[in-house]
Amino acid sequence: MPGKGLKPMTQDISGNNIENADSLLDDIGDYMSSPVFSIDHDSTVQEAAQYMRVSNVGSLLIKEFDDFVGIVTETDLTRKVVGGGLSPETTPISNIMTQPVQSIDRFLPIEEANQLMHQNKIRHLAVTEDEKIVGMLSIKDLVAYYAKSSFKMQE
Q: How far apart are CA 145 and CA 143, in angstroms?
């Protein structure tokens, strides 16, 4: 774990080294949500939707044993379940999850997350540290970053 104020050498999503990323851009970790909300892969869509509602989150990671094997989002619930005429009470969440889970290192600049989300047409990204998922980043978090950046530019 790096000391306070120190960051490991990071790479952008193209594999290019970013030697002094902290002087350029905010880290993804500064905007991610933590803890990570997850549900077992055997749970039903109904259970997942209820958990998302009470937790006030737009996505859940799907866990099988100790591994995150997929992600489900509000969009998945709308398009795959409601739009597909599936029964929320009987459909396993694993039937509608998206896999694999897309992730990005917490020490990369937040613009890298924006680029990755745009390229993959996704709205939620798992955030990793030492290859372990430690948080989630959503479009909402990107909006907060860009609103802050815009505000700074106006000052």
A: 5
